[in-house]
Amino acid sequence: MEFFAVAHVLISPEDLRARITLASLPDYCESFALVDCLAGESCEVESVWGRFQVVRQEITGGLRFTMPTCPNCFAWTITTGLPPDPGKVVVHGTINRRDHEAWFIESMEEFVQQWRAGLEHLIGGRDDPSRRKVEPCPCLAALMPAKPPPPAAFPPPGKK
Q: Which residues have CB under 8 Å from 120's CB, separation 6+?
């Protein structure tokens, strides 16, 4: 299966490679939390799908990331200067399945859209209000740690 998103960002492949590092993955995509940098171009991340190794590779037009320990053999590229949209940045994700459960497909579509929003915000300088409110799809909510409620600024009425 394939998943696409196009970021309206003008950047060279060299600058794209320089700006997107393993350490910056969580800045661009909210589905990740960096767990541990491994040797070279490899790290471990905590994602909405679990904990996986991610490998970064420079390719024509940008970068390829793979999750070699993922049961779906998930990989994604972030490229510019190439078809289908040479003047923009294309995020292209693939898994080794022809079909999958609806919740998983939704999470993959959300993943490439998070990358689009992150690229447009951090490279394009666009303030995308939806980026600040990205929630995991409801099917993944059970996998995400619960957030404690914010502290109350004032005591409830009738309490001192």
A: 7, 8, 9, 126, 128
Q: How is residue 153 written in tokens? A: 């600024």
Residue-by-residue DSSP string for the chain: -EEEEEE-----HHHHHHH--STTHHHH-TTEEEEEE-SSSEEEEEETTEEEEEEEEEETTEEEEE-TT-TT--EEEEEESSTT-TTSEEEEEE-S-S---HHHHHHHHHHHHHHHHHHHHHTT----GGGGG----GGGGGGSPPPPPPPPSSPPTT--
Neighbours of 160 (CB within 10 A): 3
**pTM listed for this prediction:** 0.76
pLDDT digits (tens, 9 = 90+) for 4-30: 999 999 999 999 999 999 989 999 999
Question: How many C-beta atoms surround the C-beta of residue 14 within 10 A?
Answer: 10
What gap in Å lies between CA 132 and CA 81, rounded to an integer? 29
Neighbours of 87 (CB within 10 A): 10
Q: What contacts 24+ positions apart, CB below 8 Å, involve 84-88?
A: 85/6, 87/10, 88/6, 88/7, 88/8, 88/9, 88/10
